Amino acid sequence: MVGQLISLCGAAMVLFAYGAHQMGRLSRQSLLYLSLNLVGAGILTVFALRARQAGLAVMEGAWAVISLVALLASGSARSNSRSR
């Protein structure tokens, strides 16, 4: 039961980020958008792996990795712009 609630929270994070972006409330580069995607996809990846759902694990894992790379790039760009 607790696992179901956690996985639903992960799905809600990804869907909230997507919906907010579609409505113009969050940009693709915002830290909140990227963080919600990273954490939500990470949670869903763990549950997909535990359930031995290879396709879902690959999709969510890739989503998490892409979000992490974008988050790191965003942080790097922000620190470079501050040091100028």
Short summary:
The protein is mainly α and 84 residues long. The protein contains three helices and no strands.
Q: Any overview of this molecule?
A:
With 84 residues, the chain is mainly alpha-helical. The chain has one domain (2-82). It has helices at residues 2-22, 31-50, 54-82. Helix 1 packs antiparallel against helix 2 and helix 2 runs antiparallel to helix 3 (54-82). The longest helix has 29 residues, at 54-82. The chain starts with a helix and ends with a helix.
Keywords for this entry:
84 residues, 3 helices, mainly alpha, globular
First-residue to last-residue Cα separation? 50 Å
The tally of domains stands at: 1
Low-confidence stretches: none
Helix content: over 70%
N-to-C order of helices and strands: HHH
Total number of beta strands: 0
DSSP helix count? Answer: 3
Largest sheet: none
SS content category? mainly alpha
Shape: globular
The fraction of residues assigned to DSSP E strands is under 5%
Oligomer: single chain
Rounded to the nearest angstrom, the radius of gyration is 14 Å
**Average predicted local confidence, pLDDT:** 93
Please write out the topology:
Layout: H1 2-22, H2 31-50, H3 54-82
